[in-house]
Design goal:
Blueprint: E1 4-11, H1 18-26, E2 32-38, E3 44-48, H2 58-75, E4 87-90, H3 103-114, E5 124-126, H4 132-145, E6 151-158, H5 162-170, E7 187-195, E8 204-214, H6 228-241, E9 250-253, H7 259-272, E10 281-283, H8 286-289, H9 296-309, E11 317-323, E12 328-337
Parallel strand pairs: 4-5, 4-6, 9-10, 9-11
Antiparallel strand pairs: 1-7, 1-8, 2-3, 6-7, 8-12, 11-12
């Protein structure tokens, strides 16, 4: 059975709902502001901060960002009671420095509690960072196959946590005045709605293929990078979709800004594309949204859906990539329909 992305919800630094955030992204607007964190070189760190009102910190901040994004998705399903819709939530990986406590146990319940919605029994939390979105997408497709009326894949994350940003800055992973080979710290909540059929009267994104791989030469090792993990995920997704690499019209990725990950994506294309193709765009929403970790892959899919509906996608077939520091690699292929 097919799975279609039909709606999205967001709370980000460039927009507090999906329409405003996606419009800002299309206009290439960002909202990097000075944080209260100093880099190890002594400069203030700039980041994509969500202007929450009232302010909140810790797990409450994540829940406060997630609840409105989920509400947007529930509003897109007016014929369904929210309690009937499983929510698959992506959160920070367990090895993340400074990871907030109780994310797996209570974050989703806290966010749904703000909406007075009872959690569906099939809801689940995925502590895999950015790659968790693709894993949740696989499970969402399975839930739809077994009778779920709709599924929400969501993610919420923040790198603006003292223990997290300090450790990553010392490891020279954060973009600062002293370090250009880093990612712009960000925070966000994002969510997408998947159903068994396309949206009535509007374009939807049909999931054609999913693939997964494992990269041994991670950013933490000195092993030579060949992009084996990402390439394996691409080949599996293409095989499931029944198409070739050259059929893809454009790519969109959770790329964070670090040279390692750009090199990996370039190598995967160099090794995987066997037919000359003059142009295949690579979109990187992190430029505007900041790097948002577990929220990044739902953002990627929401951007692709918006591009299809607003007629600015280069073509109907899009390949989406996801990666995490532990070596998980994932690829999803979508086709716009409607």
């Amino acid at each position: 059975m097919s799975a279609y992305v039909v709606a999205s919800g967001m709370m980000t630094a460039i927009g507090l709902n999906a329409p405003s955030a996606l419009a800002a992204h299309r206009a290439a607007l960002d909202n990097y502001t000075e944080t209260r964190f100093l880099s190890h070189g002594g400069s203030w760190i700039y980041a994509a901060q969500v202007p929450l009102s009232p302010p909140a910190r810790g797990r409450d901040r994540l829940a406060a960002m997630l609840a409105p994004a989920l509400q947007e998705c529930f509003d897109a399903l007016p014929d369904l009671a929210p309690e009937t819709v499983p929510v698959l939530l992506c959160v920070a990986e367990k090895a993340r420095p400074g990871r907030l406590p109780a994310l797996d146990e209570s974050l989703l319940e806290a966010a749904l509690g703000r909406l007075d919605v009872e959690m569906n029994a099939s809801s689940k939390v995925y502590p895999h960072g950015s790659a968790g979105g693709a894993v949740a997408l696989r499970d969402a497709r399975a839930l739809l196959d077994t009778g779920a009326p709709a599924v929400i894949v969501a993610g919420t994350d923040s790198f603006l946590v003292s223990g997290t940003i300090t450790a990553l800055d010392r490891a020279e992973r954060i973009l600062t005045e002293e370090n250009t080979n880093g990612f712009p710290a960000g925070e966000a909540a994002s969510a997408i709605v998947l159903t068994r059929g396309p949206a009535s009267g509007r374009r939807s994104m049909r999931l054609l293929g999913l693939g997964f791989g494992a990269e041994e030469a991670t950013i933490h090792t000195d092993l030579p990078l060949r992009a084996d993990g990402l390439l394996a995920s691409i080949r599996e997704a293409l095989g499931e979709a029944g198409i070739s690499f050259e059929n893809i019209d454009y790519r969109i990725s959770d790329l964070s800004g670090e040279q390692y990950y750009f090199k990996e994506v370039a190598l995967s294309m160099q090794r995987g594309l066997r037919v000359r193709k003059d142009n295949m765009d690579l979109w990187t929403p992190t430029s505007e949204f900041g790097y948002t970790g577990a929220a990044a892959f739902p953002i990627v899919m929401a951007v692709a859906l918006s591009a299809a509906r607003k007629n600015y996608a280069p073509g109907p077939l899009v390949m989406a990539h996801a990666a995490d520091d532990a070596g998980r690699r994932a690829t999803a292929i979508f086709q716009q329909e409607g």
